[in-house]
Amino acid sequence: MLVTSVLSTFLSVPAGHAQQSSEPLPAVRSMVVAPAATTLERQFYGRVVAKETVDLAFDVGGRLDRLLPEEGQRVAAGATLAVLELDGFRRSVERAALNLDMARRDAERALRLSERAVGPESRAEDAITARDLAEIALRDAEAALADATLTAPFDALVAARLAPPQSIVPAGQAIMRLHDMSELRVEIDLPERLFVTYGGLDDLRFMARRPGGGDLPLRLVAFQPDTSRVGQSYRVTLAFVETPSATVLPGASVTVLAQVPATGTGAVVPATAVLAQNDQSTAVMMLDSEGPALTVREVPVTITSETGTSFVVEGLETGAEIVAVGAHRLTAGQAVRRFTDLRMTDD
User: Fold this and answer.
1) What is the pLDDT of residues 97-120, one digit of tens each?
2) Among the CATH numbers 1.10.287, 1.10.3470, 2.130.10, 3.30.930, which is that of 87-147?
3) Domain segments of the chain: what residues?
4) Strand order in the sheet with 156-161
5) Would you tell me how many other CB atoms lie within 10 Å of the CB of residue 181?
6) What would the CATH number be for the domain defined by 40-51+182-261?
7) Tens digit of each residue's pLDDT (9 = 90 or more) over 138-170
């Protein structure tokens, strides 16, 4: 009789209830609400540029006799870069010097004759003018001789040799391209939206990150107050505060991290943690462990977003535990368990 009673009791239990009790609780990935962030970080593509990139040319024309440094070579300020054939310029200096000596003698003779009233005074004045012109011609010839040697105006890196040796080059033709390496800079395109949001660049802090290297601080140098036609962005120029390694050269790419002040006072949560209600309100699912089981309850919050990938929520206390992923599949009061990891089990 006892066996029959127990069997009848087991059979009287609803099948759905027996199946429900055997199903595991849904696992949820949770997160603990951290204190409100004071800064937000944005990443930009940056390109290393020299302080200045200039094309050097001779002020005089002639045959290019020597082109000294090779491309990629570093040169000091004042170092000789290129030299024209100098024989013709030296002859011009000698000719101008001889003409000046002759003009000086003529001027002295004309002055003596004028003082003795033997020669006209106008002839003496013409001789003095000819002497002065000869002095100017000598200075011009000496300047042309000096201009036939091209020197580095600053400590530089040779970017390109633009003319072959032994070629005839006119005055003003570019001979060599140099990078001014006294200060390396980074150029980025800053979106107009970010610029307007923070009212300028004074509150932004920039860092440069190179693959395999640490972060290097950057300082603001200038920005171009004219947006590009395609991306509506401003060209911003930054400079390395500390001298980077020798492997950082003009044209290299870097990742620029911009730290911007957070405008909200709430906590940052991923977009997957936010529930959008039909009345356009928002909420999150908070884990409640006060009872015998772990349950979830719905907590209304207000949200703002500055990055588009995460939300700043108001209405949560620091240290509260909320559902980070899959909150839309849960209902208030539902029992859950924390997701720990993925385990492979043998059948």
Assistant:
1) 999 999 999 888 888 887 777 767
2) 1.10.287
3) 26-37+265-338, 40-51+182-261, 60-82+148-180, 87-147
4) 53-57, 174-180, 156-161, 74-75
5) 19
6) 2.40.30.170
7) 999 999 999 999 999 999 999 999 999 999 999
